[in-house]
Design brief:
The protein is of the alpha+beta class and 203 residues long. The chain has one domain: BirA Bifunctional Protein, domain 2. The chain contains 4 helices and 10 strands; from the N terminus they run E-H-E-E-E-E-E-H-E-E-E-E-H-H. The strands form 2 sheets. Strands 1-2-6-10-9-8-7 form a 7-stranded mixed beta sheet, with helices on both faces. A 3-stranded mixed beta sheet has the order 4-3-5, with no helix packed on it. Strand 7 and strand 8 form a beta hairpin. The longest helix is centred in the middle third of the chain and has 18 residues. 38% of the residues are buried.
């Protein structure tokens, strides 16, 4: 059975995170789902994140969470997708899941005539050395949560207050910087289609 796509709109970070944890721990029961949403402005720090990379958060909340990776920013105009999936169902490990998520973003960007690529040594998706898509995951009981963030049409300024993903002076970009116009819903639908197709090919 393929995962169901759930649209959550613009939501605060912590309630969604706690709901993901509850599913991964088996405290709530539902089939595999792909959660599509945007977050209210927030910085999240991975479980091994070094505070040195949090330069000047200002009034944006900072939450320490349980995914891998360093610090990142979420905000309106960024499409966040949380694949709440059972890895064994799709014959996936962590590395193959990261590759699947990266390629789904690359394929989606290509539909909008944006050439992007993943990097072997730095998870995520890049356009001309600028990062446009990020990935951070956690697996518990064979269930994956957390996921990807694709920058579509957002205020990029908050990224300048951190070292994104722990990389000093890493430049960030979004789809709007590459195009004259971009439709958030259209990109969301394209990414959902590409993710579902990629997962279906694993069955």
């Amino acid at each position: 059975m393929m995962p169901t796509v759930k649209q959550h709109g613009v939501v605060d970070y912590e309630p969604i995170w706690r709901a993901m944890q509850a599913w991964a721990a088996g405290e709530v029961s539902h089939d595999d789902e792909l959660w599509f949403l945007q977050h209210a402005p927030v910085y999240t720090m991975g479980q091994n994140a070094d505070p040195i990379h949090l330069l000047n958060p200002g009034d944006i909340p900072v939450i320490n969470i349980d995914r891998g990776g360093q610090v990142t920013y979420h905000g309106p105009g960024q499409l966040v997708v949380y694949p709440l999936i059972t890895l064994e169902t799709y014959k996936l490990g962590i590395r193959s899941l990261v590759t699947l998520l990266e390629q789904s973003m690359v394929d989606t960007l290509a539909e909008f005539e944006i050439t992007a690529a993943a990097k072997a040594d730095a998870p995520g998706v890049y356009v001309d050395e600028k990062k446009i898509g990020s990935i951070g995951l956690r697996v518990k009981n064979g269930r994956c949560y957390h996921g990807l963030a694709l920058n579509i049409d957002m205020d990029l300024e908050p990224f300048s207050r951190i070292n994104p993903c722990g990389y000093d002076r890493l430049q960030m970009t979004d789809m709007r910087a590459q195009l004259t116009a971009v439709d958030f819903a259209e990109v969301s639908n394209a990414l959902a289609r590409n993710l579902i197709q990629a997962l279906a090919e694993r069955l």
